[in-house]
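Field notebook, page 249. I keep forgetting to write these up properly, so this time I am using the form the group agreed on. The chain and the ligand, NAP, are recorded exactly as supplied. Prediction of the bound pose follows.
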Amino acid sequence: MTGLLDGHIALITGGGSGIGRGIALAFAEHGATIIAADINLAGAAETVAMIGGNAARAEALDVTDRAACNALAAKVKAEVGNLSILVNNAGIVRRATLDTENALNDWDDTIGINVNGVFNSTYAFLDQLKVTKGRIISIGSIQSFVHLRNCVAYTTSKHAVKGFTVALANELAPHGIRVNAIGPGVIRTPVSEKLIQSPERLAQLLTHIPMGRYGTPEDIAGPAVFLASDLARYVTGHTLVSDGGYLTV
Ligand code: NAP
């Protein structure tokens, strides 16, 4: 253990799968106490089992439920202590054009989870983060910068994450809280599995990734550890892209 996050208490929304799980495992390796919060409690429990020991717990959380976010914040404060690292990772992607039947639902769900969910979790833990002079990391996307076809709501939501990060970094700097985001490229998780399993789509994708491979959750966990740690003590308001060079093409 390198101890970069020794003494920290970190909550990761969507910590029961994919990128959130990768971040939870890496944070634990670096000494943090972990709360994996996910709408899928079984997934969160699996993350905790992978961490092992007593330094992790799983909690059920739907980030769209503001009251549930507030209740979890109170529970964490009472049972674990004041949070010092919040990772707003829970998110969904729905790929379809606006002229499809589900467009309205897709818009509401995507904005509800990817934007309002980020706000709800942040707002619920703000008092604790002020006490600990904590760190907030939200998971944006390369779509915080560009648009990939057939997902207007998702691109909008991830641009919002970047804007939220800039605005909040400014507002919270006087409280000693750093606020950053990460912009993953194509990362192998259940969300991207279908794309990666399609040989034509994968080949086409790789022409757009100079490093010649898709990413893994570990490729996002490293930047997350950096942003959460004191190595990044002067970094705030930034969206750190980890995409194998996707945005350079
Ligand atoms: P994932 O494997 O599906 O993990 C997301 C987790 O969040 C799942 O356990 C999911 O539960 C949970 N979740 C969904 N709705 C929730 C809610 N309302 N409240 C709490 N938890 C909820 O996805 P991922 O690929 O790791 O994505 C994580 C983040 O990275 C997302 O913000 C995504 O937009 C972003 N991202 C991913 C990629 C990529 O290529 N994978 C690229 C750029 C950005 P269920 O499975 O039960 O829905």
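OBSERVATIONS:
- The chain has one domain: 9-188+218-241.
- Residues 9-188+218-241 form a domain with the Rossmann fold fold (CATH 3.40.50.720).
FOLLOW-UP: compare against the apo run.
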